Amino acid sequence: MQTCLEFAEARLQQRSIKESTFKEYLATLRVLELADVPYETVTLAMLNSRLSRVLTASTRRKHAINLRACLGLPVPCPKAAQKVYALPSLPELHDALERSPYAAWGLVMLYGGLRLGEACARQSLTGNVLMVDRQRKADGTLAAAKTCGPVVLPDWLADEYRAHDFERAPNTVYVGIRRAGRRAGLELRPHMLRHAFATNLVAAGATPEVLRRQMRHHDVAVSLRYYVQTSHEDVVHAVAALAAAARR
After folding, report:
1. Nearest to residue 137, comparing CAs of 171, 114, 110?
2. Distance (Å, rounded) from C-alpha 173 to C-alpha 166?
3. Cα gap 46→32, rounded to integer Å
4. Is pLDDT above 90 for 58?
5. Among residues 14, 76, 106, 243, which is most buried (max CB within 10 A)?
6. What angle, rounded to 10 degrees, do the helices at 90-98 and 103-112 form?
7. pLDDT per residue over 99-141, tens digit each?
């Protein structure tokens, strides 16, 4: 009788996946103590029971996704939770980045919504439209971007983009941006800049379709659910603005 590990190895070898991904999938079976369990005895109730032992929601979700890939079973997968940052104001972020040797990379993330790996690869620029289609991986190799598509940059940033060589190691830029944040008294991370981009775009009056296009998402719900951050103060100001408009 095939064990879960044997079944998963045979199943995954038929797919075109990276070696690191292959190992990560199999590691889930070992972490959840499923590797030596006969595959034919596995039930969804058993898998849910093993997953319930994982206390962190994000880790539990990762293991659920890995089990689907390994075993081909419809394991319920919880939705990803929004990562919420304490976002500084746009001027604060801009000023912190401008003092850094990696200002160009940070500003492309802040005003173009690029991910770190995408900012570390030279993208095609026509006018002020950046065609994002590649990213630099941690090992220095180029790969397709997670999501591709055109991004409109402010004119001044498009001019800066033409003047810079963006071919850098992602880790080098990551460390540089973290240092820029510490010098300015901010807890600054590259992916925070993509959240700030979406949040400030909406605050500037962007429609859902503009947000979706600039974020390069297939569904605007992804942009709104996971990237746009709304505080209680935002709600209070919006209601006050609506009431003021009604009295005019």
Report:
1. 171
2. 10
3. 11
4. no
5. 106
6. 160
7. 999 999 999 999 999 999 999 999 999 999 999 999 999 889 9
| Inter-residue contact 217 to 223 (CB < 8 Å) | yes
Tell me whether strands 129-136 and 124-126 are parallel, antiparallel or unpaired.
Answer: antiparallel
CB neighbourhood size of 180 (10 A): 22
Q: For residues 239 and 248, what is the distance between their CA atoms, to the nearest angstrom?
A: 15
Q: Kindly state the tokens that stand for 219.
A: 């569904």
Residue 233 corresponds to which amino acid?
A: E
17's enclosing H/E stretch is none
d(CA 132, CA 6): 40
| Contacts of residue 131, Cβ cutoff 8 Å, sequence gap at least 6 | 123, 124, 125, 148, 149, 150, 151
Sorted by sequence, the CB contacts under 8 Å of residue 52 that are 6+ apart come out as 60
pLDDT tens digits, one per residue of 188-231? 999 999 999 999 999 999 999 999 999 999 999 989 888 898 87
Report the alpha-carbon distance of residue 43 to residue 183 in Å, rounded.
53
Determine contact, residues 234/222, Cβ cutoff 8 Å: no
